[in-house]
Specification:
The protein is of the alpha/beta class. It is built from six helices and six strands; from the N terminus they run βααβαβαβαββα. The termini are far apart. The structure holds 3-methylbut-3-enyl trihydrogen diphosphate (2 copies) and magnesium ion.
Length: 248
């Protein structure tokens, strides 16, 4: 007998849920080691998790998703791992462009592109251009990104504007400085998730996360699912964000 087609219940956007979620995708190396495989095996498994989480965003009402793919400190890793990651990023962009575009994802990259190779930066620019008209999910990929490096680069450009007379020193404040950050078009993250049990932020979105809520979970990134993502977004909905004031 044929099974009756039952419509899959669509999850409701979470009332009061986060609009912008940022994720420190950590634990790929340990995930691979646990399986007796090289670290890059874990990075490949980790990259495959991204699409499911991106596609879960509209279901839970998340408009902006920012993911930490490679930090300014990750160059300290072995040449084999760094080269493998760079090659994975190139492959990921080439392979995912179509699916991301079809789903309505607008992709942006943050971080310093100067140290990345030409082929990779070209692919990054092409993906940004190809998806520039999309609005369903705003996916930001932090690649060669460090919060301190970002603030330093922003300050340098701000100082250039001051030196050139385009900006008065007395106009430098909490409103003007973020306009020089890589994230200038993005809202601040509401929720920052870090997988793999480490309770640190490792130089991620230092300025932007001043009032973010944090979730540090034990799951290793390649095991992270849309169910867990939805659960964390739902539990965010119950948080009382006071921004230094008093509760209701
Ligand atoms: C995160 O996983 C991915 C990157 C930093 C590129 P890790 O590679 O840091 O995995 P662990 O922390 O060693 O398990
Ligand atoms: C943070 O993870 C960077 C990314 C997830 C890309 P790391 O694994 O590099 O951070 P630390 O070294 O544990 O602080
Ligand atoms: Mg790590």
């Amino acid at each position: 007998m044929r099974k009756a087609q039952v419509a899959k219940p669509q999850p409701e956007p979470i009332p009061g849920g986060p609009r912008h979620v940022a994720i420190i995708m950590d634990g790929n190396g340990r995930w691979a080691t646990q399986r007796g495989r090289p670290r890059l095996f874990g990075h490949h498994a980790g990259a495959r998790r991204v699409r499911e989480i991106v596609e879960a965003c509209p279901d839970v009402g998340v408009e902006y998703l920012t993911i930490f793919a490679f930090s300014t400190e990750n160059w300290k890793r072995t040449q084999v791992e760094v080269a493998g990651l760079m090659s994975l990023f190139r492959r990921y962009i080439s392979k995912e462009t179509r699916a991301l575009s079809e789903f309505g994802v607008r992709v942006r990259f943050i971080g310093d592109r100067m140290r990345l190779d030409d082929k990779l930066t070209r692919l990054m620019n092409e993906l940004e251009t190809a998806t520039a008209g999309n609005t369903r999910v705003h996916l930001t990929i932090a690649l060669n990104y460090g919060g301190r490096d970002e603030v330093a680069r922003a300050t340098r450009r701000l100082a250039e504007d001051v030196a050139a007379g385009r900006l008065a020193p007395e106009d430098v404040d909490e409103e003007t400085l973020p306009r020089y950050l890589d994230t200038f078009v993005l809202p601040d993250p509401d929720l920052v998730i870090r997988t793999s049990g480490e309770a640190r932020i490792s130089n991620f979105l230092l300025w932007q996360s001043a009032y973010a809520e944090y979730e540090f979970i034990d799951t290793l990134w390649p095991d992270f699912t849309h169910e867990e993502f939805a659960r964390l977004c739902a539990s965010y909905g119950g948080r009382d964000r006071r921004y230094g004031g008093v509760g209701p």
